[in-house]
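S1.2 Input.
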Amino acid sequence: MKNRSLYLVSALLLLPLMLCAEEIPAGYYDAIEGKSDSVLKSTLYSIIKGGERYLYGTNDYHSSSNPPEWEAGDLKGYGTWYAFPLTDMHPGGIVWDMYSSSVRYYPKDRGESGCSLNIEHCLPKSWWGTGDKTDTIYRDLFNLNPSDAQANSNKSNYAPGHVQKGDKFDNGSFRMDSKSKSQYNYICWEPAEEYRGDFARTYFYMVTAYEQQTWSSTYSAYVSNSSYLRFSPTIVQVLLDWHRADSVSDKEICRADQISSIQHNRNPFIDYPELVEYIWGNKKGQTVDMSTLTCAFQSGICPEPIQPEPDPQQYDTLINLPGVTAAFINAIPGGNATASINRANGTRAITMGNGSTDGEITFAQLNLTDSAVLVFRASAYNTASSMQLDIYADSTLVRSFADTVIQNTRNEDYYSTTIPAGTNTIKIISVGGATTKRACMQELYLLSPKQGTDPTALPATPCTTPAARKILRDGQLLILVGDRTYSILGQ
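S1.3 Output.
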């Protein structure tokens, strides 16, 4: 078994739910003995089809900010985002996102969604029709993951496949081929290598646990109602390839075990991976002999709760703009607010861009002897639907921040990225041209680490949690981002 390190944090740390890891119940799979092919699959269906489900979504479903303790059979107070910190978390509150390598954090308020994240249906919900959020299939945690919003939007309802070019989308972890570049003549996607088996076993689970589901004829090229195998031969082969190449990991086992603690049903293709071969693979036609199967589940492999140690570090401020205006920037040696930047009405901020012209902020003559951290607070322009800010160190793009405005809210999030040593010029560009995609800048700091500190430990993804915030400590004004403390000089 591949040993992928695991950093899941127990729900007992974060949730008021009295849940314990749920081992495979005695006799749970006994009924599959001697079964094969469609009878085996239908027998598994009868075993795993039941159980409980959380409601879908955020804590909008909660009756109060402090719901009562969980009791068996009573999940009415909890939504999907209540489960994710239990099932999909690295230590320190970091979201375990199989769709990107971005570092994001779970909010401290229980049940709230993570920043720039969606709830992603691994097997697309459109494959069984639009459905209803109250449907069991819609709310099954085995098929739900916290997902980078941009990757989720691109994945849409496309099929898994072996990606050749990654020309449609590639974030370094999750890749997609366009129809013209795909070997299948349709758009396809694939995750990072270490997650391909996880996705494959989810797909196999879904068409087993919901064997009697009517699948949409719109997607009959991928999944159909005409065969017990359900998937097209092409999809079956892709999933088998993924399943065989990426064996069940500790991470996958512990995630499945925590879901079992909530839903009280299991994914048999994680517990006994060889069952995949009996239904879809090279053991079709053979009957199951339980005594020969290897169980991937191992009691005790899931770690005890990990409390991250705080790691506060102080930084010196090289550039200090607590209230950004073009005049402030131009007053800094080497600073330049281009003519396309306008001061936002009634605020100490600047709107980056004018008409179809992108806005730009440039700081030159920096000559950084050490790496530094750029921290700024920004939001979308009041009529924009999104914004994108590209950060260049000299002529190299070091980070691109994309933010979509949801329901016309104007969250002023803190963003941060590491600027490498040796940089002479930092350029921040609001990309998009028209006012439908434009940023406003409120604050900006360039922070130089004191000796012995590591700026790369700073989260490099926009997040409202852990939100950067200002505090007054011993008469000094500081800015906090996660567990890092920065000195804001000259206030």
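S1.4 Remarks. The longest strand covers residues 439-449.
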